[in-house]
Amino acid sequence: MSADLALSIRNLALSFKSWSGTSQVLHGIDLEIKRGERVALVGESGSGKSVTARIILGTLHELKSARISGEVWVAGREMSSLSQSERQALRGTDISMIFQDPTTALNPVYTIRQQFHEVLMRGDPKISLSTAEQRSADILREVSITDTERVLESYPFQLSGGMNQRVMIGMALINEPQLLLADEPGTALDVTVQAQTLRLMRDLVRQHGTSVLFISHNLGVVREFADRIYVIYKGRIVETGPAASIFDDPRHAYTKALLAAIPRLTGGGIPEIQEDSEAFFDPMVTHEDVSA
Amino acid sequence: MTAQPILSAHNLTRDFRVGKRTIRAVDDISFDVQKGECLAIVGESGSGKSTVANMILGIHPPTSGTLSFHGEELPVKRTLLHREKIQLVQQNPLSSLNPRRSIAASLRLALDVHKHGTRGERPQMVQKLLEEVGLDPSFANRSPSALSGGQRQRVAIARALACQSEVVVLDEPTSALDVLVQARILRLLDDLRTMHGLTFIFITHDLSVVRNIADRVAVFQYGKLVELADTEALFENPTEEYTRSLISAVPVVSTEEVELRGRLSKTEAADGGVESPGA
Ligand SMILES: Nc1ncnc2c1ncn2[C@@H]1O[C@H](COP(=O)(O)OP(=O)(O)OP(=O)(O)O)[C@@H](O)[C@H]1O
Ligand SMILES: Nc1ncnc2c1ncn2[C@@H]1O[C@H](COP(=O)(O)OP(=O)(O)OP(=O)(O)O)[C@@H](O)[C@H]1O
Ligand SMILES: [Mg+2]
Ligand SMILES: [Mg+2]
């Protein structure tokens, strides 16, 4: 894998085995992210975005029912060749993830302060309590939480949906990871706070050359944030290219249908939706990257 | 709007204690909701939207103030009838679905509790509900953890439909869905609203959705209701600075939308250009 690639996925396939049979979820996807690049993965609900992120993070390997094949290279290492403990060591430091549902990522029985401390110790096992406190408060302020003292002493159930999401974003960024997997990072945030978290991620990219895999259903946000886009439909990449090119000139039937379904701030009603078409299974379309 | 409102909030206030401090999550909020209308609640994260939802559902009692349903005050301890008539679709569907129960069993339980249909009819009603929210029947026997975020959200919506409710409070119901499925669910919700005369309280951060589904919009900030207006008026001519700053920060995809934002932020820039209040 070439040196400027932060992530390279080759022919990744995934199926789940259950007593009633096997269901194929990913049908061989290829995906690359360069160092310092912001790449969005967008598409159908249930198409395989979160499982892709969890394979990159190495957590799906631990699920007995998951059958994974293909290659996932992160910073020169192939994930399936690593042991469970080697994969674990990368998590929260080199690779970190913002999960779609904060309730699954935050531990209900520890305060936010304790959870930050634990994440910081992964990056620096000898970190002092006062430094940990300071750094946690700093990152919370960066995600627009002003009441840091109260939030640090709270349990997740005492915070609003968007506050928990920001806590999780803070935890994912605090060790300045090389690869950030952001799965729906803004769903519970109001637009002004969302804009602030996007700025924060952009800064991380600029200052540390972090690479971001950004998963979102909010195509307005994707248009503002991503350099490049992969569109996924039922476990297959159907279209890929620079963000501007995909938005200005969508060529795959699924991408066209998706863009036509975006509700508009100017009104006009809920968009008319046609039935899923056979053309959604057409071969992948690749846009030339003119800047490369 | 002279008709008896189906639901009204009178001076609702709610405090929480965290450690030694007390925070006021909801501060003296009053509003009416008319039967059959869709009232959107938007506003800052942490501004009290879900707390209001929880008070409407009777999950938290108000610290002070009251709620009335069809003109009658809602008791702190709700009856089964109230619980049936007022339903909630929660912000995080994973936490509201029992992890040990299959999808079908969760829906079946809702039908059993509220005694909808006969025993013989219920399995079919479950299939019908899954179909209505666009989930394949093969999902019926899965546990919630074996579903994607958007699939779980649809199960939560199906469960609210299983109870023949009058008022449905939807807390971020479609933000976990792709825009195609979102449009389908929004149309479904809209059809159900007209067919069954349902009333919706729709909490969301997605102002583009609000513009296309709500009749009126309530804007919350720091636990207070800062603006309540008809949707059209609110988007074309917001009176509050905060509302203006919200609308002009929405990430959009078309030139017409960029122009709308531009119109609003121009008037904003004239008074000093506010970015994020509370930031
Ligand atoms: N543990 C599991 N066992 C069986 N099937 C699973 C499991 N986890 C996920 N799936 C299935 O794999 C598919 C992909 O799920 P994934 O969570 O990646 O979807 P997604 O693209 O992130 O969708 P969303 O946008 O709704 O979050 C879905 O159809 C889901 O039902
Ligand atoms: N059980 C609780 N104990 C203590 N504080 C709470 C509790 N529930 C909510 N709060 C606090 O009340 C305030 C309002 O929270 P609420 O969940 O209503 O916000 P919200 O408007 O729904 O925000 P979001 O858009 O982020 O979901 C927040 O400051 C939150 O921390
Ligand atoms: Mg997902
Ligand atoms: Mg909330």
Tally the beta strands of chain B.
Answer: 10
Number of helices of chain B: 11
CATH class of chain B: Alpha Beta
Give Rg of chain A in angstroms: 19 Å
Compute the average pLDDT of chain B. 88
Distance between the termini of chain A: 18 Å
Low-confidence stretches of chain B: 269-279
The percentage helix of chain A is: 25-40%
Strand order, sheet with most strands of chain B: 6-7-8-3-9-10
Number of helical segments of chain A? 11
Strand content of chain B: 15-25%
Distance between the termini of chain B: 37 Å
SSE pattern of chain A: EEEHEEHEHHHHHEHEHEEHHE
Radius of gyration of chain B: 20 Å
Give me the oligomer status: heterodimer
User: Which of globular, elongated, flat, extended, rod-shaped describes the shape of chain A?
Assistant: globular
Strand order of the largest sheet of chain A: 6-7-8-3-9-10-11
Helix-strand pattern of chain B: EEEHEEHEHHHHEHEHEEHHH
